Amino acid sequence: MTYKVKLDVFEGPFDLLVYLIEHARMSIYDIRVSEITTQYLSYIRDMKRQDVTVAQEFMVLAAALIELKAKMLLPGSEEEEIPEGEEDPRSELVARLLEYKRFKEMAEFFAQQEEISTHIHTKPREDLDPYTGPEEELLRTDIEQFARAFRAFLFRKKKLEEIRQDYERVERQRMSIEHKIEQIRSFFRRKPKLRFSELIARESDRYDVVLTFVSVLELVKQAAVRVRQPKQFGDIEIVLKGDRSQGS
């Protein structure tokens, strides 16, 4: 049986070999060496016919498979058979394939974890020591000292609450590129030409400015708008595509 495979899929010879074994629905512990060797060599020939440079490691494994195939075939027979009491010649190949699959699965797992970590954003830790201070102790004191301590406690509590509210406000103001693009499109419903400065609210922080700029770039990529900067370091003009009254 011949399999049509893409030549740029495989990272190396063992990647190809694992694909052929799994595609043929073989057990990795009971490889039909003759069949797999034929398919592997057919793939190598396809690479050469298409003028693809065959890496040396592909040829090394091909030689190893041919040698293993010769060991598996008895004289005058086309069937692979292991004489009773002899070690399976495929054992070393099976061990190397299992080790390759194990490392490949680990690499895929770490790649997934890296991808997940790119979507995790943390807030920088703030120094709250000025508002917490050392643990308070019960002291015998007069009413004036008690009042001062109580006022200090209220002041610390107020500051902590302000920090929490500021953090929640900042988080609420954060928006995704998709939301920002929708907001920019709503501006275009009122007029077809805008200046970049018009998209920036007066109270915007650096995050909002960067988010707005990236969203405009995404609209340019989508061919939804045209942009131009009449003079160096000047304001950027953004024109909705399809509006013929404005210059490009």
Number of strands: 3
Oligomer: single chain
Average pLDDT, all residues: 77
- Main sheet: which strands, in order across? 1-3-2
Number of distinct helices: 8
Distance between the termini: 58 Å
What would you say this structure looks like, in words?
This protein is mainly alpha-helical and 248 residues long. It has three domains: 105 residues, no CATH class; 31 residues; 64 residues, Arc Repressor Mutant, subunit A, CATH 1.10.10. The protein is 54% helix and 4% strand. The protein has eight helices and three strands. It has a three-stranded antiparallel sheet, with helices on one face. Strand 2 and strand 3 form a beta hairpin. The two termini are 58 Å apart. The N terminus and C terminus are likely disordered.
Outline of the structure:
By secondary structure, the protein is mostly helical. It has 3 domains: 13-117, no CATH class; 143-173; 177-240, Structural maintenance of chromosome 1. Chain E (Arc Repressor Mutant, subunit A, Orthogonal Bundle).
Which tags fit this structure?
248 residues; mainly alpha; Arc Repressor Mutant, subunit A; 54% helix; disordered C terminus
Map the helices and strands.
Layout: H1 13-23, H2 33-49, H3 56-72, H4 91-117, H5 129-132, H6 143-173, H7 177-188, E1 193-195, H8 206-221, E2 225-228, E3 237-240
Helix pairs in contact: 2-3, 7-8
